[in-house]
Design brief:
- Keywords: Cytoplasm, Kinase, Magnesium, Metal-binding, Phosphotransferase system, Sugar transport, Transferase, Transport.
- With about 325 residues, the chain is of the alpha/beta class.
- Helix 4 packs parallel to helix 6.
- Strands 2-3-4-5-6-7-8-9 form an 8-stranded parallel β-barrel, surrounded by 4 helices.
- The radius of gyration is 19 Å and the shape is globular.
- Helices cover about 45% and strands about 15% of the residues.
- Bound molecules: phosphoenolpyruvate and magnesium ion.
């Protein structure tokens, strides 16, 4: 089986009825690039930049960040790289950036909330990214966006830094896409409004499920509530996809669920454009998608949100439609 998959490395991902979808990889550092290329990913759908901050004893400088981003953009040779601005807080702490003790860190001061508050940190990262944009095809996305105003503020800060760098004669790309993670239920519900201002969405199921089910993603006692196929989650996902498509925007998924064969059968039926997963899952999922006729899974996806009641119902439903072997 592994040998069969290896043959698909240089192919793009085309379903049995000839539709193309993008299979992308998630990375944490430039070192992960090798695995991305070896497994034939068509893009990087999530570059988690926290590691740059966590592997350092002080805030990483603009130049240090620029070098890391450029390495990844150049290494991908024109394929898109979506970089997420820092997602610190929650369970991720920095020794040199003391954060207040909080009762509920996952609901607290984290990610874009820190970036909008400590703008010097955010602007440094954005400048490094904008400078690196010249070396490839860059997308930038903001984590943990809850309101349209947060997105607009973050985008305006990006625009200020972009205009300044451009005016100063720094080489930059003119087609950087600026999008957002959809990982808070409020933004999934209000996706039609967000779709008017963001260039793209990437659905973060790890957090979207945690917040929708009110179940800590790291707590084993409640891990049974991690239910990616629960119709409640799927209806949110469907709303995000449809809202984006109405505005002509693309939608990806970069949470764990994007690399899950059962989930992907449903997502294909909903028309999700990009699937970003651990590099080692890419070939397996490409092989699965090549076997699927999308007209068949459209019906499956419809049933998954109208007829099914539970997560388990949808596991059974997918198995009825597709031989997952
Ligand atoms: C997610 O929440 O699904 C996600 C991709 O981000 P992280 O796992 O880094 O929170
Ligand atoms: Mg997240």
């Amino acid at each position: 089986q592994k040998e069969e998959w290896a043959k698909l490395k240089d192919e793009s991902t085309i379903t049995a009825d000839g539709k193309h979808f993008t299979l992308a990889a998630n990375i944490g550092t430039p070192k992960d690039l090798q695995g991305v290329l070896a497994n034939g990913a068509e893009a990087i759908g999530l570059y988690r930049t926290e590691f740059l901050y966590m592997d350092s004893s002080e805030l990483p400088t603009e130049d240090a960040q620029f070098e890391a981003y450029r390495e990844v953009l150049e290494g991908m040779n024109g394929k898109q790289v979506v970089v997420r601005t820092m997602d610190i807080g929650g369970d991720k702490h920095l020794p040199y950036l003391p954060l207040p003790e909080e009762e509920n860190p996952f609901l607290g001061y984290r990610a874009i909330r820190i970036s909008l508050d400590r703008q010097e940190i955010f602007r440094t990262q954005l400048r490094a990214l904008i400078r690196a944009s010249y070396y490839g095809k860059l997308g930038i996305m903001f984590p943990m966006i809850a309101t349209v105003n947060e997105f607009k503020k973050a985008k305006a800060i990006f625009q200020e830094e972009f205009d300044q760098l451009k005016a100063s004669g720094t080489p930059v790309s003119d087609d950087i896409e600026v999008g957002m993670m959809v990982e808070i239920p409020a933004s999934a519900v209000l996706a039609d409004k967000f779709a008017k201002v963001a260039d793209f969405f990437s659905i973060g199921t790890n957090d979207l499920i945690q917040y929708t089910m009110a179940a800590d993603r790291g707590n084993d006692r409640v891990s049974y509530l991690y239910q990616p196929y629960n119709p409640a989650i799927l209806r949110l996902v469907k709303n995000v996809i449809d809202s984006a498509h109405k505005e002509g925007k693309w939608v990806g998924m970069c949470g764990e669920a994007a690399g899950d064969p059962i989930m992907d059968c449903i997502l294909l039926g909903m028309g999700l454009d990009e699937y970003s997963m651990s590099a080692t899952s890419v070939l397996k999922i490409r092989s699965l998608m090549k076997r699927i006729d999308t007209s068949k899974v459209v019906e499956l996806a419809e049933k998954a949100i109208t007829e099914s009641v539970t997560n388990e119902d949808n596991i059974q439903l997918v198995k009825k439609y597709i031989d997952l072997d």
